[in-house]
Amino acid sequence: MTTAPKAAPHTAVLIGRFQPFHNGHLALLQQALARAEQVVVVLGSAGQARSPKNPFTWQERAALILASLPNADQARVRCLPMRDFYDEPRWVAAVRAGVQALVPPGGRIALVGHFKDVSSDYLARFPGWELASLPRQGDFDATPVRDAYLGTPTAELAALWPALETQVPPAVLRFLQEWARTPQYAEIQQEWQMIRGYQAAWSNAPYPPVFVTVDGFVRCNEHLLLVQRGHRPGKGLWALPGGFVEPRDTLWQSCLRELQEETLFPLSETQLRERLQGVEVFDHPDRSLRGRTITHVHALDLGDAPGAALPAVTGGDDAALARWVPIQDLPSMESQFFEDHFHVVRRCMERFAGWEMPVQPLHA
User: Fold this and answer.
1) 41: domain CATH number?
2) Residue 171 has pLDDT above 90, yes or no
3) Neighbours of 38 (CB within 10 A)
4) Whole-prediction pTM value?
5) Longest CA–CA separation in the chain, Å
6) Contact at 8 Å (CB) between 210 and 294?
7) Pairing between strand 210-220 and 276-282?
8) Were both Cys, which of 130, 166, 284, 325 would link to 110 (CB 3.0–4.6 Å)?
9) Residue 189 belongs to a domain
10) How far is residue 83's CA from residue 173's CA, in Å, rounded to a whole number?
């Protein structure tokens, strides 16, 4: 008795950041299209500010992926933007829910990917989905492509294009050439140079360093205290006031010092100690481009007194500006936050304010 061949899955899922989309990604996408009726491409790092690691918005990446396919295949691909969250269970649940919403009841799902290194561990986080683990699709990697693109002086970019022709689809190459003439490219290129210089300073250490930092999550009258960064990395982006721990400071002392230096905060240590709710640690390995950075967020609740004036703050030291931001305005500022600070704020709101801060929908 012969067994009937197993029906193809309805949906194949391809997950990545695609910064940028290269020929290896394209080969995986073509394999996924050959296996299923439709493909859902999950675009990571959606909603974040541009950075050397994530220079392109999810809308730009979605457009480039579709432009790299024939028209008939474009109609079978759905792009699903996805936040990073820096919280794996939350991310897995969000990916599952987002994909499931695009699959008819009973439709089988296959996850397509390549186990490259630890960054591919997510492929094992979706039990119940069939796993199509494929071999490496050519000698392609987004990181060296991105480094070459951002690290080449603008006057020398013309010599880079022939090399990139073999690495990325034609639509992506045209986009990279056009984007190199924009102010955003110049800004991210300067960020890339700063980060590389930062990393070079400790490149000869016997082990990669682990940086310890502090941040202040300060609430008052339905407002949150934020600073606008005055220097790179993240110049112009919003963040919680904070910084690196000094060699002779405790975490608490460092938090107080950073609050004073960056916001000229008027309350005394005794007054702030009375308002300390707790400390939350954020230690995701990828939360900062500068290196492994573990921060300790000190939550301070100054209370709610309707009509009362907020404590006066002024930007100082590394902060270009200090500002009390209405909590209701925070969701609309997601793409203006430095590194993972938007998600830090969300988690602290949940823990210390008992409120699940909404996020704006990412429309595909």
Assistant:
1) 3.40.50.620
2) yes
3) 19
4) 0.93
5) 83
6) yes
7) unpaired
8) 130
9) no
10) 26
